[in-house]
Write a structure and sequence with these properties.
The strands form 3 sheets. Strands 1, 2, 5, 6, 9, 10, 11 and 12 form an 8-stranded mixed sheet that branches. About 35% of the residues lie in helices and about 15% in strands. It has one domain. It has helices spanning about 5, 10-20, 25-30, 45-50, 75-85, 90-95, 100-105, 110-120, 125-130, 185-205, 270-285, 320-325, 355-385, and strands at about 50-55, 215, 220-225, 235, 240-245, 250-255, 265, 265-270, 300-305, 310-315, 340-345, 350. The chain contains 13 helices and 12 strands. A hairpin with an 8-residue loop joins strand 3 (about 220-225) and strand 4.
């Protein structure tokens, strides 16, 4: 059962919860099978967290009022060139050395985007041969989904506004299983995300911006539920944060994967394990007392598999936080505040102009969204001081 493709409303949720004999979050916490690391979670945790996934779309609903045709043009020539993409065929780029790429594309930050992409354009067998170092990694999901599945050969179109409307048949976010000896293609993916997002953020904001800057975060953060007994925790792969003078606020968290793993009807699809992991990350951030999010009820997660990127929005209300641990998944409830609601985009392919354009639009909208929240909060603080 691919949860992400199936559970669209409370009726779907109840039917599946009954068939899966799902239990509450509290019951899982008290069981011997409880997993404290969100990276180990699976389908039972999705039911326990009462997750409902809406159909993926071209534009994330949370940011829809900030995204429109042409909103990405004329901001800076670097962003325009980023959207246009590297010159020539992918084969040309992957045959170039980094210094050749960096000196070919200006400014230098754009060159580093294409240099990072060039690594991901290499055949998977080549990456396995050239990857000689491994970094310490988080505990990964132990569920065995089978052998490594290459991304080669999968064609994932971007933005159905500019192609036939086939979004319902496209893959969404995916899960994977990583063996200790597996090559960490994930490292290359994180580097590509870093260069790509930095390129947009650094040229989308004026140098004399009055509000705090929004920047890419390299360091991984650990989010812990502050509860007693058997709390849980999650670790991200980096993020986008607002650099406030006194403390930083998370605008988006990142999750990078080395491959598509679950296949349905010939196309990659969301694994229950990855969906549970990123839902757990969002929930841990929401509940954490050590981290601040730009919007308490709205957690943004950017998921990348090599050069494919998908954006998730987790809506986690105060009502949900108050009730979710004790509510039984098998208890019928039409009240949407008792569910963890998930919106997501289609996959954006960074090899294609349309994919890059839509991803840039979302990053620009994310900056505008965070700026609006910050400006509103600053105004409220000023009013409080005047009173």
């Amino acid at each position: 059962m691919a949860y992400y493709n199936t559970i669209r409303n409370p009726g779907d949720f109840l039917k599946a919860a009954l068939s899966q004999q799902a239990v509450s979050f509290m019951a899982l916490q008290q069981s011997e099978s409880w997993e404290s690391a969100a990276s180990q979670w699976g389908i039972q945790y999705l039911f326990a967290c009462r997750v409902i996934c809406k159909q993926p779309s071209d534009i994330l609903p949370l940011l829809a009022d900030r995204i429109y045709p042409g909103c990405e043009t004329g901001i800076h020539h670097c962003i325009d060139n980023l959207i246009q993409g590297p010159r020539g065929e992918p084969a040309t780029l992957r045959q170039m050395a980094e210094l050749q790429i960096v000196r070919t594309y200006k400014p230098e930050s754009l060159g580093y985007v294409w240099a990072a992409l060039a690594h991901l354009l290499q055949p998977d067998s080549h990456i396995r041969q050239t990857m000689t170092s491994e970094r310490p990694v988080r505990a990964r999901n132990r569920s065995d989904h089978g052998e490594y599945i290459s991304t080669e050969g999968f064609q994932i179109s971007s933005s159905p506004l500019e192609r036939p409307n086939t979004a319902s048949s496209l893959p969404s976010s995916v899960g994977y299983m990583e063996r200790s000896s597996a090559p960490l293609v994930e490292d290359y993916t994180v580097r590509f995300l870093s260069c790509l997002i930095r390129c947009v953020l650094n040229y989308a904001q004026p140098v004399d911006k009055k509000l705090p800057f929004i920047e890419y975060r390299d360091g991984r953060l650990t989010y812990r539920e502050p509860g007693v007994g058997k709390p849980f925790e999650a670790v991200d792969d980096g993020g986008v944060q607002l650099m406030h003078p006194s403390e930083n606020f998370q605008v988006a968290i990142l999750e990078a994967k080395r491959s598509f793993q679950d296949i349905s009807d010939g196309s990659p699809t969301v694994s229950n394990e990855l969906l549970a992991q990123i839902a757990g990350e969002a929930l841990a951030l929401r509940l954490s007392s050590d981290a601040n999010c730009i919007s308490a009820e709205n957690i943004i997660s950017i998921v990348a598999v090599k050069y494919y990127i998908k954006i998730f929005h987790f809506n986690i209300t105060d009502d949900f936080v108050y009730h979710f641990k004790t509510l039984l998944p098998t208890d019928e409830s039409p009240d949407m505040s008792t569910y963890l609601k998930v919106d997501s985009t289609v996959w954006f392919d960074m090899r294609e102009l349309t994919g890059r354009k839509y991803f840039v639009r979302h990053l620009l909208a994310l900056v505008a969204w965070a700026d609006t929240i910050t400006n509103s909060e600053d105004s409220e603080d000023s009013m409080d001081m005047e009173e």
